[in-house]
Every structure is written in C-alpha cells, then in structure tokens.
Design goal:
Blueprint lengths: L1 H4 L3 H23 L4 H8 L4 H14 L6 E7 L4 E7 L3 H4 L4 E2 L11 E5 L20 E6 L2 E13 L14 E8 L6 E11 L1
Length: 195
C-alpha cells in the first residue's frame, strides 16, 4: 500500500542517503577552480555563450558515470535533486541521470535526463503533472539554466528521436510510464529560456 500511494520505502531511504552524499560532492565541484590552461583559454573567448559552452565541455571532461553534475529543480512538482552522469541502473539508484550521449547545459542541443517514478526516491514521480510554462532549472557548477515546459508525449521505450537536436536548445525529461510499468516512456520537452 505504501509503495502504491507514495514510493517503495527501502529504496527511498537508500536514495535519500545517496542524495546527501552527492550534494556534498557537488558543493566541492562548485568550489573547484578551472585548470590553469583552461582558465587562460577561457579568458581569450570574448563571446559569453561560447564561454559557457567552453566551461560545460571542461566540466564534462572531468565526469565519470555516477558523478554528480548539478541540481534539477522543478518547483511545481516539489523536486530539488542532485542529478548524476549516466543512466545505468547504478546511476539512477542515486538520483536522476544525464544521458551521456547528449550535451551538457550550455552546449547547443538537447540535454536529456531520466529518473525513476516509484523507486530510489522517485524523483520523477510527478513528472506527468508538469504543465506548459512550468519552470525546470538546472543548477550546474558553471551556470544556471532555466527551461520552460512546452509539451509532454508518451512514446515506446525504443523511441530515441526524442533526444535529437532541434532548432533550439532544450531539455528532455524521461521516465517510465505509466506508474509501476516500463511499457512506455513519458517525455517532457522544455525550451531553454535563460542561461
């Protein structure tokens, strides 16, 4: 009954402990300076957008699967979780996971993040309640990125075109659908509004 009404309690406790550990590690990453060579290269880039993309690439080079990347905040559904690099089973046990084959926020393209809906803290439990215009923020060690929800689609799990690059920078959130089933995926599309 508890699992049906809320989430699976044992994995929720595990995820909560992991989120605390990831949060501490993310704070360390936020304080870490760029390598001297990267700092010198960054100073020679005049364009703000290109500087941000450079910082994203520099950060991405340091990431291994399971490393904390940033914090995803969805105020309308009460989410504020650290997300990690990778979408493997072990990665998603600790929090939402960034699809490694997609760019990082600040780079051009479609950023994609997956999360559980009923286990391991159920960070995307209420992703189906996101509505057009709702705010989704990705707070990265090198910048903040605000997206606005545009639409939601239900697709088969084999549908990979949802992460394709489009004519604007966007965020794609994915989770199993419906609850307690992996038969389909719910996909939330959000457009970058501010970086």
């Amino acid at each position: 009954g508890l699992t049906l009404l809320w989430q699976e309690p044992v994995s929720a406790v595990y995820a909560h402990l992991q989120q605390g550990r990831l949060s501490d590690r993310l704070e360390e990453l936020e304080r870490a300076p760029l390598e001297p060579a990267e700092q010198r290269a960054l100073e020679r880039i005049p364009d703000t957008r290109r500087r941000l993309a450079f910082r994203a690439r520099a950060f991405g080079r340091r990431l291994d699967p399971g490393d904390p990347m940033g914090r995803i905040v969805m105020p309308s559904v009460g989410v504020s979780d650290v997300f990690v690099e990778g979408t493997g089973a072990g990665d998603l046990r600790t929090g939402p996971g960034h699809y490694p084959e997609t760019p990082l926020p600040g780079e051009r393209g479609t950023v994609a993040i997956a999360g559980h809906r009923t286990t391991y803290g159920a960070p995307f439990r209420h992703v189906d309640e996101l509505e057009r215009g709702d705010r989704v923020e990705l707070a990265m060690p090198y910048g903040r990125f605000v997206y606005r929800v545009e639409r939601t689609r239900i697709v088969p799990p084999t549908e990979t075109s949802v992460t394709d690059r489009v004519d604007h920078d966007r965020l794609v959130l994915s989770a199993c659908h419906p609850l307690y089933s992996a038969a389909k995926r719910i996909i939330v599309f959000a457009r970058l509004e501010q970086s």
